[in-house]
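Section handout, structural biology tutorial.
Before the tutorial, make sure you can parse a SMILES string by hand: atoms, branches in parentheses, ring closures as digits. In the record below the ligand is zinc ion, and the chain has 147 residues. In the tutorial you will relate the predicted structure tokens back to the input. Do not try to memorize them.
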Amino acid sequence: MCIIFSNLVHVSHFLIMGKKRKKIRVPRTRNANTLTESQYFSKIRSSLRNSFRYWKPGQIALERASRPSQSKNKRLKKEYCCAICKEWFKRADVEIDHLEECGSLKCYDDIVPFLKRLTKENPNAYQIVCKPCHRGRTNEYLNKTKK
Ligand SMILES: [Zn+2]
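Predicted structure of the complex:
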């Protein structure tokens, strides 16, 4: 048992800027010992997010937040209102936000609630926000969950 464990967890000494530092390596328990637990679950999380990126209820919410572009640039057909600051933006500058944060996915039990929040059917579960407002909201959420 001890031998197996010592293979997984290395305690190594690093010389960083001339100082001796003890660094505990996180064991790589997944994918033939190439991924840590947290890398494994973040892979699942990001593949789910990618799969449902163009989920229709979110696209409907996007349409509802749009109007014909008022810009002089004729190539821009539509613009989108940020639900938080109420300014108008081109498509590249807004993001579809889940009103209820999809949250973290750190273990198998997190998958089902994450997926349910990610794939809500009601377009009202989504809002369109500009990138700075989205960042603000995400930071606010992260600060809340830290406490
Ligand atoms: Zn905004």
